[in-house]
UniProtKB/TrEMBL annotation:
Gene: htpX
Gene Ontology biological process: proteolysis
Residue positions binding Zn(2+): 142, 146, 219
Record protein name field: Protease HtpX
Gene3D superfamilies, per database record: Metalloproteases ('zincins'), catalytic domain
Amino acid sequence: MMRIFLFLATNLAVLVVASITLKLLGVDRYTGQNYGSLLAFCAVFGFAGSLISLFISKWMAKMSTRTEIITQPRTRHEQWLLQTVEQLSREAGIRMPEVGIFPAYEANAFATGWNKNDALVAVSQGLLERFSPEEVKAVLAHEIGHVANGDMVTLSLIQGVVNTFVMFFARIFGSFVDRAIFKNEDGHGMGYFIATIFAELVLGILASIIVMWFSRQREFRADEAGAQLAGTAAMIGALRRLQAEQGVPVDMPDSLKAFSINGALRNGLAGLLMTHPSLDDRIEALRQRG
């Protein structure tokens, strides 16, 4: 589970901090019981966390992974990497993204950026060392697929919608608790404040199931894009190679794990909060696609 602890945690933290700040400043009371105004109010703050995460995503990625951007290739491997990404980007109809390598032993890669024409694609040193050129190209094609599909923007917008309704229903719940249980008819009391924060945390966790479902679906779409760009056999081969590396610890910052090709897996209820479907499911989907 690769994105939960930063992307979702960042958005939940923004909601909680915004709630506390607005309560302390007395702004919250002005929303009253006008549900239209309340919804608009929540939308402004609900999208704040996801949009902030989106716009600083490249900067966060470079800092957190220590990615070194290739500006002037120093080796034939770097030259090949730039040429391959340029070719895949041209075929996908997007502008050439920044290309980088990050120092990690595990085989992994990620793509991020606030729009498909201003993106970053990076691969780990371990992937370059242990994967064949065909497998590396398939991994790059998968990441280019994420960029071309606009997954970073779409995921952020979905998170913004989820944040909005979490804040909206949490405030309705807080108002109900404050009035029905604490019998407070004079503005918002402590019962409203506590109940709202509690509801935001619970609803935020439940709503993340929706976000993670979308995240898993976009992995299938990125695999399809990778198959179109690099060939189905190469894409399946890269996923099988990733299966062979599942014993290797994944040292990827949580903010980027949803946008990486190799995500940790859980079973049972925890599987509802996974950013990636199983590699077996992804390989079978490609096989059925032909």
